[in-house]
Design a protein that fits this description.
This protein is α/β, with parallel strands linked by helices. It is built from 7 helices and 15 strands. The structure holds flavin-adenine dinucleotide.
């Protein structure tokens, strides 16, 4: 494996790869235009759930691997990871429990369990990891630095060959930025908008309905995330009308008065039509690059599984 490793991107994919490579003893540096809360990762909800990412046969094993790592991090409160009951609903018809969810203990929600079900026709529930991005991205950055890693912010590459030649292996975790960086026309911005509201009294589980209009209410340590949207759009500005619609729908489902909005967040989910790109390639100057982008609506859910596979690819291409 290359001695010095450069990672492009400081969202959840870049930071998790950084931790894994640095803790394997490699001299690793992260370069990124934006860091932490400025990234798409900073706008995420970010519940463990394999949503809006392809292909299923690769996504599910990565997701299950990540589940295990996040579940162990949930034992340490400072990570910002906790376990939460997630209730997944449909407005019409019988919701199928996916095969992968059964070994995780998913079960059908019985109508008498929750009044919220009145808005929905059916649902299933399972305990999953929830990462509070306001804590978790900092946790990853701190863990990476402790393992000897360096983070260089405000660095914008036009092309990957600009990376200093002292780095012999490059990992591309540029998210939607990979469209321009490596001219990947297969990437599609799946715009998501959320409203951050104060903690909702009595709401201790995540309520999710993936059926249009997308709706979720996710209680975090200090606040609650109301969502959401998923449209193909480049627009990274928050739309006040969308925020009002999100808050109205979540309040209707939860049967509460509309809370005040503390913040609005928008992120572009890096959806890749032909599936997550996690594979080696070569730069024009002959250096090996490993692409790790295109995680769509599941970047947190796939993060540890993909980082682990990136290390395996690095070992086998050394
Ligand atoms: C509203 C919303 C809700 C979501 N909810 C969930 C959820 O519940 N669970 C879940 O798992 N996922 C969720 N997601 C999806 C998740 O946020 C993304 O899949 C994830 O953030 C992608 O992470 P990333 O690190 O690959 O990309 P990003 O977070 O976008 O990071 C990309 C990094 O690359 C850098 N970069 C890009 N181009 C360049 C360049 N040319 N030069 C230098 N640096 C560059 C950027 O500055 C940034 O640091 C949600 C997304 C949104 C928008």
């Amino acid at each position: 494996m290359g001695e010095r490793i450069a990672i492009v991107g400081a969202g959840v994919s870049g930071l998790t790869c950084g931790v894994v490579f640095a803790e394997h003893g490699h001299r690793t540096a992260i370069f990124a235009k934006e860091t932490g809360q400025q990234t798409t990762s900073g706008a995420a909800a970010a519940l463990w759930f394999p949503y809006d990412a392809e292909p299923t046969e690769r996504v599910i094993p990565w997701a299950l691997r990540t589940f295990d790592v996040l579940a162990s991090l949930a034992l340490v409160p400072a990570t910002g990871v906790s376990m939460i009951e997630a209730r997944q609903y449909l407005r019409t018809g019988e919701i199928p429990i996916p095969d992968w969810a059964i070994p995780l203990g998913a079960s059908v929600i019985q109508p008498e369990v929750t009044g919220v079900l009145e808005s929905f026709a059916s649902g299933f529930s399972l305990r999953v990891p929830l990462t509070d991005t306001t804590l978790y991205l900092d946790y990853l950055a701190t863990r990476f630095r402790k393992a000897g890693g360096e983070i260089h912010a405000n660095v914008h590459f036009q092309e990957l060959e600009e990376i200093d030649s002292r780095f012999d292996l490059v990992i591309n975790c540029a998210g939607i930025g990979a469209r321009e960086l490596v001219q990947d026309g297969d990437l599609e911005p799946h715009r998501g908008q959320v409203a951050i509201v104060p903690k909702i009294q009595g709401l201790s589980c995540a309520i999710v309905c993936d059926e249009a209009p997308l709706m979720y209410a996710i209680p975090r340590t200090n606040d609650c995330v109301f969502g959401g949207t998923n449209d193909v759009s480049e627009n990274s500005a928050a739309d006040p009308e969308t925020t009002s619609r999100i808050v109205a729908e979540c309040s209707r489902v939860l049967k509460i008065d509309k809370p005040r909005v503390l913040a609005e967040r928008v992120g572009l989910r890096p959806f890749r039509r032909s599936g997550v790109r996690l594979a080696p390639d070569q730069l024009r100057d002959g250096r090996t690059i490993i692409h790790n982008y295109g995680h769509g609506g599941a970047g947190f859910t796939l993060s540890w599984g993909c980082a682990g596979e990136a290390v395996k690819i690095a070992v086998s291409s050394a």
